[in-house]
Amino acid sequence: MFLFNDPAEVTDIELVHDRALPTETSVGIPLATTVILGVGGFVLTANPVVGGALAAFPAYAMFKKFKKNWKDNAFERRNPGYVAHLIKTDADMIIWIEHHGVDEVRSQLLTALKHRQKLTSCAKRTLHALCPESELPPKRVEQFLSAQPALPATEGVRITTQLGEPSAINVPAQSVQEGVPIPKSICDHYLSDLRSTFLCAPPRTGKGILAAQLMQGFKERFPKGCLLTCTIKQFAGENWYWSYSDAHLNPETKTPDQQLAAARDIFNLINFWEARQSSADQPCLLVIDEIRDTLNLIGSIPMNAVSSDYAESKKTFGEWMLGAAISSATLNQCHHRFMLIISPVVSLAGLGGIKGVSKDALGSFVGITLAAPKAMQFATGDNGTFSAPRIDPNDPRFLNCHALAYCKNDKQWYPIESIPKAALDKLANSNPTLKKWNSVNLNPRVHLEKSWTVESDFKHEVIAVVEDSDAGNGELEIRTEIKRFLLANGEGSKPRDLSNKARSPVRKMPVEEIKLYLDVMTLEDEIYEVDGTFFANSN
Question: Residue 225 — φ and ψ, nearest 5°?
Fold first, then answer.
């Protein structure tokens, strides 16, 4: 077992990981300053004493700084890859990943492996989960794999990379024998840690099969959850898996009028999903299929033609759709609302680019990329947003499954379970009736009703429009818009913010009237107030 040179130096995990080795900048800047001042002083005064005196100050500062760094970092120099020896339990691993990120922990583990240092069992498991075999030192791969303990496939380690956000990494404990398929399917992996996801699927990789498994699994695991679906293209043989949806939107887009109506329907669907009250046992999943064709067909429609709330906006529908889908991902996940975006492209640039979307917002999405032996377009190993690493078409992991799915967040390949062709043909010919999303402005008056109005073998909840009185509608719409605005602005809002920035009917309402609604909603525990600023309750 490797022993630390000075155990007193590792008594506090926080002190160790906060130390920083001397960098090129910390040494290079004082050194450059020394040379410039020394030469400049000599040239200007023609006196070597003056030049030496000017150069002495930064030289002395550089010497002191380097000496301090050298002393402070003696532990790291003597023990390269020291993180590997501090990861003794799952709790240690979580702390290090939260403080340093996945890349730093992976680098430290690889450094320890290259220096032939013995790893703890937890560090080995972490290294195998974070590093593909191609990144391991060639001479150490066989020894490392042989030393890796075989653990039950059902065990797992849940890691949270950002406080307050859902898990970004699920490190499965698994056998590491080369060529053995991972026993956990991508469907089980997705549903065990539900998150907003980009599903990148080239043709003939089983996108439909996987989408059906995900939707069916979602309804089985969350029977009271809400499943909303939207696709711009649909074939009769696909009706069987869209029938799992509680509300399905398949708009016509042949004429300009139909395209405008389709944009409005999708606008209403996304707003309904965003305003829905969800919980951990009753989440809401919105599936958007063929997003590239959707943006190509209706993405250029001006938002001021889609909704009066954007009368003065210069945005297009495509910019709004991608912005609403991506920028609000973290907020919606906190409220158990998730989005599955299915795309036949592997890069966001293939969708026309996204304006005004931060990398942090994009980081809230999981990337899943599909590959089959005859469809390896996205498994190229390049730097595409959701590209998968290269994989041999004859890889044994393709055996006994329809295709493989690469999860970019935990860098693992997962199998897509096969469905017998006879069963697929039977489902494709079943042609069940779909519960369609009607072309109406469905504000929060739309509720999920437990009434089966569709004659079909597929039993689900359906969307029904509840007609309220006009007076009740107005008050309900105001309260709902207030709640939606406060949820979208987690830093808190004042009554004047609602009057200036909220949507109709709250926009341009008198501040005093809005304050009255806020006070009533505060008394009913829908929202809460802190020093005149109002926040939405998450429950």
Answer: -75, 170
